[in-house]
């Protein structure tokens, strides 16, 4: 067997044990105790592997604590700096780890966050351990970053990620491979928009003419926003939440909408966002005014020659290992978008194969763990020697 595969295989038992322990911790975004416990575990394993570790607490723009970013570093003999980026937060509420504990069945591991992204984080650490065992250190520095807020758009971590993205030669992201094994070479940009509409209450039976119906304005705005789908190729606009009024016999004086915008290209992303702002500003019901706030806007990660070069290097490594390498674009955004915006050459989906993200049947293919760790370790070696940018 290739030495990378052999060394990765030797890490398999430890990987399984770590995965069970890490998935057993509830670490949903904002669950500070669980996120701290998860980061403590990863820190312990990183220190045992000889990495230098630091923790940086982060908060959202309002100052609400979101947890710690864990940053682990190892110096090498070369010059190129390579970032391995993953996250420890999940989308699941407290109690999920107990209600749906880690289990293995028919070659797959199940549990909250097993694929997104705890399995990927542990693959990154295992790849570093493989390189250390084989005394392969052609890189200048390896930096493993684990964030606590990726699932909510990285409002606290994005400044750090953007700084690191501008400083490294390549960013290899540890989201797991698609369920067919594809790596990820591009992602849609996303904007979460909160629209608040304010009207005027009145008795719906006695004097409705004195009211200004915010619910009606929200309904008309919903139809107008939905009509944006198809205006630009690949742009989607979804009103996912609408709440208005309190009682049926009162003209609704307030409404709140949550809107999801996604686009493949920056120009279309910006055009759609501008059009949404324009539609919000145009009154559709006299006396109702509307405001929009954009939360954690994340621009598209568009393919570039730098990403194409990383795909070529991954395919080269995969051919040597007997691991097929293919890649795709995906509509979900991730920290890869922020790292690409900062100027790093990025490739994502470098964790093991998995699927069912954000759902009760989330899974990780255990047979993919060894070859994907070997692929990641080999790619780090290629980027170190040849360059990814």
Automatic annotation (TrEMBL):
GO molecular function terms noted in the UniProt entry: carboxypeptidase activity; metal ion binding
Cofactor: Zn(2+)
PROSITE patterns to which the protein is assigned, alphabetical: ARGE_DAPE_CPG2_1
Domain Peptidase M20 dimerisation span(s) in chain numbering: 186-282
Signal peptide: none
UniProt keyword annotation of Electron transport present: no
EC number of the protein: 3.4.17.11
Top-level taxonomic group: Bacteria
Keyword field: Carboxypeptidase, Hydrolase, Metal-binding, Protease, Zinc
A Pfam cross-reference name: M20_dimer
Residues at the active site: 89, 150
InterPro entries: ArgE/DapE_CS (IPR001261), Bact_exopeptidase_dim_dom (IPR036264), Pept_M20_glutamate_carboxypep (IPR017150), Peptidase_M20 (IPR002933), Peptidase_M20_dimer (IPR011650), Peptidase_M20A (IPR050072)
Descriptive protein name: Putative glutamate carboxypeptidase
Native organism: Micromonospora lupini str. Lupac 08
């Amino acid at each position: 067997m290739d030495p990378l595969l052999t060394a990765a295989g030797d890490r398999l038992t430890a990987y399984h044990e770590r995965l069970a322990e890490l998935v057993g911790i509830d670490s949903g975004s904002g669950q500070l105790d669980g996120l701290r416990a998860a980061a403590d575990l990863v820190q312990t394993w990183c220190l045992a592997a000889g990495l230098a570790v630091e923790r940086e607490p982060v908060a959202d723009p309002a100052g609400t604590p979101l947890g710690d970013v864990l940053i682990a570093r190892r110096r090498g003999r070369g010059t190129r700096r390579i970032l391995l980026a993953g996250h420890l937060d999940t989308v699941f509420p407290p109690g999920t780890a107990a209600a749906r504990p880690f289990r293995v069945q028919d070659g797959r591991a199940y549990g909250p966050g097993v694929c997104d992204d705890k399995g990927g984080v542990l693959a990154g650490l295992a790849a570093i351990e493989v390189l250390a065992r084989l005394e392969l250190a052609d890189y200048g520095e390896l930096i493993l970053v684990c964030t606590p807020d990726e699932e909510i758009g990285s409002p606290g971590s994005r400044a750090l990620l953007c700084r690191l993205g501008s400083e490294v030669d390549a960013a290899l992201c540890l989201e797991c491979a698609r369920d067919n094994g594809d790596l990820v070479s591009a992602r849609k940009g996303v904007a979460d928009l909160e629209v608040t509409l304010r009207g005027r209450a009145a008795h719906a039976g006695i004097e409705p003419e004195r009211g200004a119906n915010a619910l009606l304005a929200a309904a008309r705005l919903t139809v107008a926003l939905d009509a944006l789908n198809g205006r630009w190729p690949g742009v989607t606009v979804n009103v996912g939440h609408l709440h208005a009024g309190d009682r049926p016999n009162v003209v609704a004086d307030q409404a709140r909408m949550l809107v999801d915008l996604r686009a493949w290209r920056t120009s279309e992303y910006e055009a759609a966002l501008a059009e949404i702002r324009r539609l919000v500003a145009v009154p559709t019901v006299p006396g109702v005014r509307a405001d929009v706030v954009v939360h954690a806007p994340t621009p598209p990660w568009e393919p570039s020659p730098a990403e194409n070069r990383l795909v070529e290097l991954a395919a080269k490594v995969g051919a040597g290992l007997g691991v097929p390498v293919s890649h795709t674009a995906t509509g979900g955004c991730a920290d890869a978008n922020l790292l690409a915006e900062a100027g790093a050459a990025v490739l994502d989906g470098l964790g093991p194969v998995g699927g069912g993200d954000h759902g009760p049947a989330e899974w990780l293919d255990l047979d993919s763990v060894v070859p994907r760790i070997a692929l990641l370790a080999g790619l780090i070696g290629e980027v170190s020697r040849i360059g990814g940018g």
